[in-house]
Design goal:
The complex is a heterotrimer.
Chain A (H helix, E strand, L loop, with lengths): L1 E6 L5 H25 L4 H10 L5 H26 L7 H18 L6 H29 L3 H21 L24 E5 L6 E4 H19 L1 H11 L1 H6 L4 H24 L14 H11 L4 H25 L5 H21 E6 L1 H8 L1
Antiparallel strand pairs in A: 1-4, 2-3
Helix pairs in contact in A: 1-2, 1-13, 2-12, 3-7, 3-8, 3-10, 3-11, 3-12, 4-5, 4-6, 4-10, 4-11, 5-6, 5-10, 7-8, 7-12, 11-12, 11-13, 12-13
Chain B lengths: L1 H29 L7 H19 L2 H25 L4 H19 L25 H6 L3 H19 L1 H11 L1 H6 L4 H27 L11 H11 L4 H23 L6 H5 L1 H14 L2 H7 L13
Helix pairs in contact in B: 1-6, 1-9, 1-10, 1-11, 2-3, 2-4, 2-9, 2-10, 3-4, 3-9, 6-7, 6-11, 10-11, 10-13, 11-13
Chain C lengths: L9 E10 L2 E11 L4 E5 L6 H9 L6 E6 L2 E3 L4 H7 L1 E4 L11 H8 L6 H14 L15 H13 L5 E5 L7 H16 L3 E5 L3 H7 L2 E6 L2 E6 L6 H9 L17 E10 L9 E9 L3 E5 L6 H9 L10 E3 L2 E2 L5 H6 L2 E4 L14 H9 L7 E2 L2 E2 L1 H14 L16 H13 L5 E5 L7 H16 L3 E6 L2 H7 L2 E6 L2 E2 L3 E2 L5 H9 L1 H11 L2
Parallel strand pairs in C: 3-8, 3-9, 6-7, 7-8, 13-20, 13-21, 16-19, 19-20
Antiparallel strand pairs in C: 1-2, 1-4, 4-5, 9-10, 11-12, 11-14, 14-15, 17-18, 21-22, 21-23
Classes of the chains: A mainly alpha, B mainly alpha, C alpha/beta.
Chain lengths: ~375, ~300, ~525
């Protein structure tokens, strides 16, 4: 028995749509098997995990809350990966954005005005961009592998945050807990009612709106502009990209600053809403899960939006499963990893036709 | 004096997992494959090693389980990248995420449990020699294994036909294929070797370095090992030097924390990561060195020319 | 001297190989005698490489029989072929750049691994056959001719009865080719057979005892090349008269549109050739061809002129009088220059992009109908794409396929047509018809000549001397990064070009040989 890969003349359009769906399906099947191995009823477990989060308005709100940072970061990473720029440090850029934006409530908690709000958001974006600028500069100047440098900076950023909230930025009235003052007033994200009281109500915050706006505008950028063309060429054939007049260095800058800025935005939005303050842990690994979001979304910003919702379900499902089934919520991470594996495996189908050869058919084709 | 001794001993144990993981990855990359999943393989190695030792009462079984766990995960990686020709960077990342997730899940019941520690050896009773004795003759077996492995890899890569084939496959897989060598089987073998080493490194962490299980105990060591391979320009003895350098930096950071110097402990903890970045920058910037030593096919998928 | 005229060494009887619908080999019979240099002629796609792969054991025939010294045999694998005594020197070498000569050869030989003994044997054999090699040398440092010697010595160490050579002189200077012929003739005298695949008809006439000509998978003739002319051989290969490209030798050239003045470009890496003091004028209406064997600075020169690599002084290159040595690629395109690189997939075109998107690749800066205010104009791109496809007869399946779905010749026509459609003032083209079938090659060469006739200055870099003589009005030779003087095409002979190509090159080899 042998696996034979036959290269297709062109990428299969059918598979571009089908492959993420097949991957999700395979993940569900694998999930069922895992649940069975844990002595749980597989169907009930799958229901608790994937369907229950969609059944009441509170959990849909939570879904959107969790999907927002995933979508913001995922959109930026989708573009970055398309250009073959491997920003793995989004988690660190998220942290840096939260820290820089957090300057405002920590030092000026009384500054309550729309300007303070805008300033915080801006600082968040700039913080993420600045943190992302480091691996970009090192890549361009020294050809240092951006995967390793951006990743190392995640640890550094988290340690800086830890130091700040335990040390100089700790809330003096906080009973010695490692956290800053709680944010308030204009220094929090405004909420909007998405669905009226009769159906919901479902509230979303500004972050969700920004995520949708980002996804749509970046999708437009990729499909219709010369910049998007540049990204696609550089990711496909860097030599052709140089021949076309594009510069690898500029592409690297663009991708890192874009993804970093979006990650910083996600960071500041998180601490301005869900978390409401700075503390040692402000993100359950959104920066890493966003990598999976980007791939599940086929490296397309709008696809990333949809994928963010799918992966948000896995976070909620994990929490729900902990309560209802007694399974650790860490199973969410396992599902996410399995999903990424299946996505990558199924992507092979886009470029290649897979044939399983038995011994007889192998001889027949050789004869 | 005894403080210096204990620092040196700790440096050796801190460097050993880095060396183990890096030497395995060096062989993998020499064959042209980039496996970024070292962190994930280390994590499952650590948790499986801990669990197996706990269950059987034998650290040796733990070590074997750690090796096995690393190999299973690397097999998954190999299947995706070598048979299904998936993108190696993305698959390596997936391996890390999956490995960390699985390790966290399995390890839930191990948190807080006391672990088994791998025994210190006492070679020919020479560990009794003051100062040098414990350093050279009193380490646990895996320290010696790591150094022996380095020597074996160094010899095999450059003085045997197998090593020549591995280097050839990493240099030009199309040429190797044209000459009739099985590029895919060679790469599978190297990937499995790398997985075994990474798993072993993880097992060392939970069975010798800190004999317990803490979530995220790998703390980025797998990534540092990857950087080490680049830093060493894919040469085995340089990997050993690099591993011990990083180990020194790590332990220096820890020991300074206890000294009450004004530097906050978190920033001292950040030292290894910052040093990794600096080391990468210094080596990568030397384009001539990189060009001469980087395996030409590193990270490129192999599909035979028709 | 072995005189075995009665028996054949290898007979391939009625070989058929079918790939899906395609009959790559359709009942081919080939007989090779020991001591014979047997040419295998045919156009790209005639079935030569399929047949040879079967002889070499890399492919199994659909039907047909092999006889080795009269006995039926099935060549199951390359290893089996090697045991029989069949060795092959490929057109594209299977060498490992960072390994030494000895290590490269060790990888190709079965048996125990002993580098020291092997190095001795290599030194012996290479000296004996006049193919000097230094066993400890790293392949990356060697010239193409020296690399071919590694391949040949690798074969010779296995005592082959039949040596297959695939387009061996494509990468050699005329003098190196002569050395090769001496080796092959000697091998034949020793009673070995040589199967010589080539499309260089003059060489075949000089060297080979007999020739089998393939067309569309069948044998169309088996002749004695000495009794044929190059023209009659060509006719047999192609099955008719080839379109003779109309030359333009009599064209009077106008002002200089492309000027290179003391162009210097240092090497930016270990395997890169430094360009030294290149000066050249290309005038409106003329085609200047740069001859040279691969690896002498052709890509570096192309990158310098196209702008992918920036020069020290702005006035090292002038396009229509404008200094642009430090300008970007697109700034040069906006001055009216167009460029066609050597590699179409991955450099000249993005393989996964559609043809209409590939139009945008080189023309987004110079063509306002393609990009407006940063937004792509898809209709504009499709329009241009259709125009190019029509004008250059680009054969493709779907209306707007991905570039990699096209055959080499059709993609090259598209890539060349994309630039010619702009009617540029200066065209710089590297290897215009490398790997392209005869029909497409003729189209492209004619288009280049017609373009020059309209007043464009054309600079063509080519390794194909036949092509150069077909299209060029002036010729210069690039060797080790230095450019010779230019000569009018009618005033220089093949021998002189060969000497210019060798240049400093041969001194290197003498040095290597002396230290062997």
């Amino acid at each position: 028995m042998r696996l034979l890969l036959e290269k297709r003349a062109e990428r299969s359009r059918r598979m571009i749509f089908l492959s993420p769906l097949i991957a999700v399906g395979l993940t569900l099947v694998t999930g069922a098997i895992i649940f069975a191995l844990l002595d749980l009823n597989p169907l009930r477990a799958l229901f608790v995990y994937f369907i229950e989060p969609l059944t009441n308005s509170w959990s849909i709100e939570q879904l959107i809350v969790k999907a927002t940072p995933l979508a913001l970061i995922g959109a930026g990473l989708a573009i970055s990966f398309r250009a073959n720029v491997w920003n793995i440090g989004a988690e660190g850029q998220l942290t840096a954005g939260a820290v820089l934006g957090g300057l405002v409530p920590v030092f000026f908690p009384q500054w309550q005005s729309p300007l303070a709000f805008l300033f915080m958001i801006l600082l968040g974006v700039l913080g993420g961009m600045a943190w992302a600028a480091i691996p970009a500069a090192l890549k361009n100047r020294f050809n240092a592998n951006e995967i390793l440098t951006s990743l190392m900076l995640v640890y550094v950023a988290q340690l800086i945050l830890d130091w700040l909230v335990r040390g100089p930025w700790r809330d003096p009235q906080g009973y010695n807990f490692p956290k800053t003052v709680s944010f308030s007033g204009w220094q929090l994200l405004p909420q909007f009612k998405l669905l009226p009281d009769s159906i919901g109500p479902i509230y979303i915050n500004l972050g969700a709106i920004l995520a949708v706006a980002a996804a749509l505008s970046l999708a437009f950028l990729m499909a219709r502009t010369l910049k998007g063309f540049e990204i696609r060429v550089m990711g496909n054939s860097p030599r052709a990209g140089r021949f076309s007049g594009f510069s690898r260095a500029r592409t690297v800058w663009f991708c890192f600053l874009l993804a970093g800025g979006l990650a910083g935005l996600a960071g500041i939005c998180e601490v301005m809403s869900t978390v409401g303050q700075l503390q040692p842990s402000i993100s359950p690994g959104y920066g890493f899960t966003a990598i999976i979001v980007a791939f599940l979304g086929r490296l397309n910003p709008v696809g990333a939006l949809v994928a963010a919702l799918a992966l948000a379900i896995s976070y909620l499902g994990g929490e729900g499963a902990q309560v209802a089934l007694g399974v650790s919520d860490k199973i969410a991470r396992v599902f996410q990893g399995i999903l990424l594996f299946y996505i990558l495996a199924c992507d092979t189908l886009i470029l290649y036709r897979v044939k399983l050869l038995t011994n007889q058919s192998a001889e027949a084709s050789a004869a | 004096m005894s403080e210096l001794l204990s620092i040196i001993l700790t440096i050796v144990t801190a460097s050993t997992p880095l060396l183990l993981a890096a030497i395995g990855e060096l062989v993998v990359e020499r064959s042209g494959v980039l496996n970024l999943g070292v962190e994930g393989m280390m994590a499952v190695g650590a948790v499986c090693g801990f669990g197996a030792a706990l269950a059987t009462g034998s650290p040796l079984i733990g070590i074997l389980a750690a090796i096995g766990a690393g190999m299973v995960l690397s097999l998954l990686f190999g299947f995706l990248t070598l048979t299904l020709v998936a993108n190696q960077v993305a698959t390596g990342l997936a391996l890390t995420l999956l490995g960390l997730g699985v390790a966290g899940l399995i390890g839930v019941s191990f948190v807080g449990q006391p672990g088994l520690k791998l025994a210190q050896l006492d070679i020919y009773g020479l560990a009794a020699i003051p100062f040098l004795g414990p350093i050279i003759f009193g380490q646990d077996v895996l320290v010696y294994v790591s150094l022996a492995l380095t020597a074996i890899v160094a010899y095999a890569l450059f003085h045997t036909k197998l090593g020549l084939i591995i280097r050839a496959v990493g240099d030009s897989h199309q040429s190797a294929h044209a000459l009739g060598y099985g590029v895919i089987p060679v790469r599978y073998a190297c990937v499995l070797f790398g997985g075994a080493c990474a798993g072993l490194a993880g097992g060392y962490l939970s069975l010798a370095y800190t004999p317990q299980w803490i979530e995220n105990m790998t703390a980025g060591r797998g990534w540092i090992a990857l950087a080490l391979v680049v830093f060493a320009s894919w040469l085995p003895w340089r990997v050993a030097i690099g591993a011990y350098l990083f180990g020194t930096v790590m332990i220096l950071g820890f020991s300074l924390q206890g000294q009450g110097i004004g530097i906050p402990s978190q920033l001292l903890s950040a030292l290894p990561y910052i040093v990794t970045i600096i080391a990468l920058v210094v080596i990568s910037g030397n384009r001539a060195l990189m060009r001469a030593n980087t395996p030409a096919c590193l990270g490129q998928p192999f599909v035979p020319d028709r | 001297m072995v005189k075995v005229k009665r028996n054949y060494l290898l007979e391939a009887l009625h070989m058929v190989k079918v790939f899906g619908e395609l009959h790559a080999n359709d009942g081919i019979t080939l007989r090779i005698k020991p001591g014979e240099i047997h040419a295998l002629l045919g156009e790209n796609g005639a079935g030569k490489s399929t047949l040879v792969k079967m002889i070499y054991g890399a492919l199994q025939p659909t039907s047909g029989e092999f006889l080795w010294q009269g006995a039926p045999i099935s060549i199951a694998s390359p290893a089996f072929a090697r045991k029989l005594g069949i060795a092959m020197v490929f057109q594209h070498f299977s060498l490992f750049e960072t390994l030494t000569v000895a290590e490269n050869i060790a990888l190709a030989l079965p048996g125990r691994f002993n580098l020291a003994k092997l190095s001795e044997k290599i030194a012996l054999v290479s000296k004996e056959y006049g193919l000097p090699l230094v066993p400890k040398a790293v392949v990356a440092d060697l010239s193409v001719g020296e690399r071919q010697r590694i391949e040949i010595v690798r074969c010779l160490l296995q005592e082959p009865r039949l040596l297959i050579m695939d387009e061996p002189t494509a990468v050699l200077t005329p003098q190196e080719a002569d050395q090769l012929f001496a080796v092959l003739t000697r091998l034949a005298k020793e009673g070995r057979a040589v199967l010589y695949i080539s499309h260089r008809l003059e060489e075949v006439k000089r060297l080979c005892h007999t020739a089998t000509i393939l067309r569309h998978g069948k044998v169309v003739a088996n002749v004695d090349p000495a009794k044929e002319t190059a023209a009659s051989l060509a006719k047999l290969m192609v099955g008719g008269d080839i379109h003779v490209v109309g030359t333009q030798r009599k064209q009077r050239a106008g002002t200089a549109r492309l000027q290179l003045r003391n162009l210097n470009l240092p090497a930016d890496g270990p395997f890169v050739v430094e360009l030294k003091n290149i000066s050249l004028d290309v005038k409106a209406g003329e085609v200047v061809a740069i001859a040279g064997v691969a690896g002498n600075g052709q890509s570096e020169m192309f990158d310098a002129i196209s702008g992918e690599r920036s020069l020290a002084h702005n006035d090292m290159i002038c396009i229509d009088g404008e200094p642009c040595g430090r300008s970007s690629v697109n700034e040069r395109r906006n001055l009216g220059a167009a460029f066609v690189p050597e590699e179409r997939l991955g450099h000249g075109a993005v393989p996964a992009f559609k043809l209409s998107e590939n139009i945008v690749l080189t023309r987004h800066s110079s063509d306002p109908s393609l990009v407006r205010s940063g937004l792509l104009q898809k209709n504009g791109a499709s329009g241009v794409s259709d125009r190019v496809i029509k004008a250059f007869d680009v054969r493709k399946g779907k209306p707007d396929p991905e570039a990699r779905a096209l055959s080499g010749g059709n993609l090259q026509k598209f890539v060349v047509g994309r630039e010619l459609d702009r009617i540029p003032g200066v065209l710089v083209i590297n290897q215009p018809t490398w790997g392209v079938d005869a029909g497409a090659a003729a189209t492209i060469r004619q288009a280049i000549i017609d373009l020059a006739r309209q007043g464009t200055a054309v600079l063509a870099i080519s390794q194909d001397l036949d092509e150069i003589f077909e299209i060029a009005s002036r010729i210069a030779v690039l060797s080790r990064g230095q450019l010779s003087e230019t000569y009018a095409a009618g005033e220089i002979s093949l021998e002189q070009i060969g000497l210019l190509m060798a240049g400093a090159h041969e001194v290197e080899e003498v040095r290597h040989a002396a230290s062997a």
